[in-house]
């Protein structure tokens, strides 16, 4: 799966870090970094994190890989 965080929106509330710490990290107080292509096993965590973000800064790709075509 793919995720994109709108870092202009992100206010560093860290809800996503709390819910999916393998995917989202806060460096210092405000600099969010994240894994843009997390394993599908993390989907539930990431969906929870996206739902919990107070400013809805996390966008999920719901296409389940079809975007990548048949690439091996
Ligand atoms: S929950 Fe939203 S606002 Fe908070 S750190 Fe994550 S992306 Fe940023």
From TrEMBL:
This is Ferredoxin. The keyword Oxidoreductase does not apply. GO terms for molecular function: 3 iron, 4 sulfur cluster binding; metal ion binding. InterPro entries: Fe-S_cluster_ET. Keywords: 3Fe-4S, Electron transport, Iron, Iron-sulfur, Metal-binding, Transport. It holds the Pfam family Fer4_15. Its cofactor is [3Fe-4S] cluster.
């Amino acid at each position: 799966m793919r995720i994109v965080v709108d870092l202009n929106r992100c206010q560093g509330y860290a809800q996503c870090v709390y819910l999916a710490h393998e995917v989202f990290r806060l460096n210092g107080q405000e600099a969010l970094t994240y894994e843009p292509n997390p394993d599908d096993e993390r989907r539930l965590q990431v969906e929870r994190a996206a739902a919990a973000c107070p400013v809805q800064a996390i966008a999920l790709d719901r296409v389940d890989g079809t975007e990548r075509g048949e690439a091996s």
